[in-house]
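Can you give me the bound-state structure? Components:
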Amino acid sequence: MMSEADKKALRWVKFRRFTLPYIYLLPAFIVMAFITFYPLIYQVIISFTDFQLKDLMHGLESPNLNQVGFKNYIDIFTNALPVQNFEFLRILTYNFWWAISNVALHVPAGVVIAVLLNIPGLWGKRIYRAIYILPIVVPPIVVATVWQNIFHEQYGAMNYLLTEIMELFGSTDPVRLRWLEEYSAPIKWLLPNSPLPLAYYAMMIANFWLGWPFMTLVATGALQSIPKDLYEAASIDGASNTQQFWNITVPLLKTAMIPASIYGFTLSFNLFALVFFMTGGGPARSTEILVTFAYDLVRNLNLFGVAAAFSVLIFFVALSVFLVTNRLTRATESYTEA
Amino acid sequence: MTTSNTSPKKQNIIIRFLNINTSKETSGRDLPLWRQLLLQVLTLFIGATVMFPIMYIITMSLSSQTTRPSSLQLFPKEISFVAYQQVLDHPTANPVSFTKLLQNSVVLSTVVGLIAVLVAVSAAYAFSRFKFKMRQVLMVMVFIPLLMPAIGLATPLYLLLNSVRLADCGDGVMALAPFATCAVGAGKMVFNLRDSLYGVGVSMIAGALPFAVWNLKGYIDTIPEALEEAAAIDGADANQIFFRIMLPLAVPQLAVTFFIGFIGHWQEFAMSWLFLTQPEDYTLAMTLYNMTGQYASSIPWNRFAAMAVIVAVPVAIIFIALQKQIVGGLTTGGVKG
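Here's the bound-state model for the whole set.
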């Protein structure tokens, strides 16, 4: 029989085992309660008001504040905001397209270049590897400004380059592409509800420069962790180089590239600095993504109520993206769940 | 995700051409010269495209001309440190010294990074090792802000931080809002949390903390449980396991998470720009932003380029020094080990 003291001890142990995880979670959740969850709730409350600049000093106690119900949300969905060229669905589609099209280019390019750098006997591998990671280490604000310069109509390096190429074909006219200002879409059938202006392609080029090195870095790490024995065993069994590539390299790369792709997707999806500095969302908001528009609503238009409603919508977009990607990466599973 | 869109036949040629044996070691035989040369042309070309914007900005920073170069210059014609000199002497139009800006940047990034990592580690441990009710829900709650840009929370954070104010009501009476306020019309604001580096730090932690939890959880997932089991058999309780075994093992990753955060905070300007109004609170990234922002047409380009190089260098050094760990941390974060 257990003594009374033993029973007490056992109950204490059980209590501890039951509550311990929550105690470990406590510090993070206390901090987040104040600076994440409380603002999120606050955000929802503001989103039902016509919060403006004059209310900023007083917050929710402001005497001028009116409850407007779902007006902000309805205005966003029906594009009735006092903002020119705003179409919620178009921006949303564009945002997804922007992120997906970027990742779809960065990942294959990154893998191919990693494979290239992994060729046995290639001269100067170390130097190339060192050079190739430079785009990752340059702050986005610098990258964006440099590329904005490169695509400048008059002084831009891209137009200089194109002019010189055109001269080879006998043309003498200087190329003056208005990369970041031209509104008309060069390829009309691509993404019909959101015509992609030249600026989109300019930003794709800039972001390609920025994006593939990270994928190469990840892919190189993954390639080097593939045991050499696998290839030896395969070649003894008579597998060709091609078969080895598809049956060993690709499957093993996949485990590293899927999370990297998702990381790249979220990064591109919310790529504030590049969009903000290269085009500011222009021309005519055609390259605007959700984040830059939210910033514009707060900083320049001072429509805080609308901005709050918009942020709540971004929250739901983020939630659905997370739930989908979480299925792919299983990031929320614990160590013990096989 | 597809890895390539070219046709299978074409790919076979590419694969054969690249002589794919993806293992690390060289197998002793050299590449045929023509193949080596062809590959060198390819890799050099890629290198050139990478270097192009970088050379552009470095060349500009070493110029003594404040105007934008009228033709493409990728190699400095002159090497002048005038721009660097000017930026270090007078980084902004305001009388704020470069050291002050540097100090703001360093202190802000360091403190935010440290707090985020220290608060996150126990939560990461709980998510990785325990099974409990609401686990999935709580984890989603922590991870959502990761996908939600910090800008999305700008307004409520602004209001929240703005409500913490210290006012001098006169006669040596101080009032700390929101708990007490001076009589209407009286009082002089001494301190506003929103308009201070503390406030910006708080708003940055809002973004840094979920990232730290995610990153550390991914790492702890890869630590085998055998050690903890052994310790438990030897009679260690859960707390001892956490402090004596898990924390020491996680220290390298704590450092990596800190540095990844540091890089991000070092470059942060959007939130700071919304919150801060005092020039002496500005950070280096904000100063850089300020140089391009309003007066973009009259930017002294060489000074902007010099500032850009100055802001980029610390990030570059950290990243290059820790590239293996940083990439490892970012990618194992998602998959289970």
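A couple of observations. The two ends of chain B are 21 Å apart (CA to CA). Chain B has 13 helices and three strands.
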